[in-house]
Amino acid sequence: MSQEIRNLDGQYRHGQVFLQWEEHALPQDATLQVWSSEQPFSEPGAEKTLLAAKIHQGSARDWWQDPASFFKDAEPAPPAGFVIQDGGQPLNPRNGLHVHTVPRSGDGERYYAVTWQSKSGNIKEQPFLPGQNCLSAPLAVKYEQVLPISLQSPALKRGDGLGKALVFSFHGRGGGAGVDQKTGKTTGTHLWFADATQGWREGLPFKFNLSITDKEVRISPFDRTWINRPLLESPDSRDHVPAVCSFWSGYNTNIAQNTNTPELQVDIFVERYLLALIDWAQNWLGTDSNRCYLTGASMGGSVGISLGLHYPERFAAIHAMVPIYRYTWEECSTSKAVSARRLVCASGPLQDRPAKVRANGENFLEYMDGARNINRPQIDTPPIFATNGRRDASIPWVNNPPFYQAANAARQAFAVFWNDGAHGMSTTAPDDVKQWGQDIFQYRLDQSYPAFSNCTDNRNYGTGDPEDGDIIGWINRGLSWSDIKDTRWEYSITLKADHPEIRYPVKTDVTLRRLQQFRPCPGETLTLNRGRGQESTLTIPEDGLLTLRGLEFSDAQPLVITIRRTPDPNRKNIIPGSERPRRPYQDIDWSTAVRVKGTTHIHITSNKRLSEALAVGLEFLTVSNYYPSAPYYPIAKFTPNYYRFHQQHPIIDKDWKMVYPPFDWNKIVAQWKDKLPPELQKQLPFKEAAPFNALPEGILEAPNAEHHSFRDTGAHLNSVGSMYCSGHFDARNKFLVTDYGWPVGNRRFWRDACDEMIAELLVEDGGGITINHPHWSNMPLRLALNMLDYDARILGIEVYNHSAQVGRKTGWSEQYWDNILATGRQCFGFFVPDWYFSQEDGCAMNILLVQERSAQACLQAYRKGNWYGCIKGNGLGFDKITFDGKKISAAVNRPATLKVISRQGTILESKGQEISFEISPEEYPHHVYLRLTASDDSGECIFSQPFML
Question: Which residue segments constitute the domains of the chain, with CATH numbers given?
Answer without folding.
Answer: 4-60+95-144 (2.60.40.10), 479-569 (2.60.40), 594-873 (3.20.20.140), 877-949 (2.60.40.730)
